[in-house]
Please model this.
Amino acid sequence: MIANNFWSGRRVLLTGHTGFKGSWLFLWLQQLGADVFGYSLAPDSKQNLFDFVSFAYPDFLENQHCLSNLTDLDTLKDWVQFVQPDIVFHLAAQPLVRASYEDPLGTWLTNVQGTLNLLESLKSLKKPCSVVLITTDKVYQNREWSYGYRETDRLGGHDPYSASKAAAEIAISSWRSSFCGNASHQTPYLRIATARAGNVIGGGDWAKDRIIPDAIQALEHGTPVPVRNPASTRPWQHVLEPLAGYLRLAEVLTSDSSPPCESFNFGPHLESNRPVSELLESILSHWSGEWVDKSDPQSPHEAGLLHLQIDKAYHYLGWSPRWNYATTVERTVTWYRNVHQGLSPLDCCIADLQAYQT
Model:
């Protein structure tokens, strides 16, 4: 699926490289031989995947690792000019629904204005650059219907996080239409697409208010797993699945003479759309414990039913999920159990990468 020889020596700018998905993509790009540069805030917790995998790359930490905010336009512009990227993956964001209720203005500022700051910084490049901007499956106006959303469905968002990402999609589309081209106010060098995915699971996620970190923390301490919305259905997929889609999308943007500068969904097969309660039961089949319903009718709104149609990614990119639901859960729980028993997180990540590409 991934053209390994394509990535060797490519200069890649990865924003949000200190986050969960960003750390996995950082490691994968290193394994592919890319020349990776990062721009992100520092990890938001003492226990984080980035620290576990980045120590193996001291040159990156010393010379190619910028800790700053997307809202710092001057620093971002300077870093883009320093990196001179061939490819950009934009993962930096405020990624949590519940946190967006606590800081809605910060969420909109980061997710909308931060994305525009990146595009403005890239506009001054005088070389071809492919740009993959990651949003979320929650950009769609959620009607709680039983069939999956297509890329042409209406955008929306009840909560500040979802709305900010939908707004980012609109802003990106406007920016691309306005400033990509051959007119005097435009740039001919950027090829821009957006990627919509969400509800990824996998080893190394310790973020607050996510089901897998909450479950693992409880299991490690021998306490019941608290579950806020057991009946909510989500398209569960291993973190490597959308990352493979992002990599493939970047390859096509770079290599095709008429690339699809559009939006793409990256989700699991239909059988992976399961209620949270079923996910918990699957986890407990690999790690003994119990869960408890902590539903609160006063909690902020979260979508109850959500999944994506992925036909477009299959037909345009040749991408499709490789791991089914059972494998996804097993690989995730096994990663945490192995680390809990003393194995290296880096080695566990590399083992999953190798298994996924086999």
Summary: The domain at 6-203+235-272+304-324 is CATH 3.40.50.720 (Rossmann fold). The chain has a mean pLDDT of 93. The CA atoms of residues 16 and 92 lie 4 Å apart.
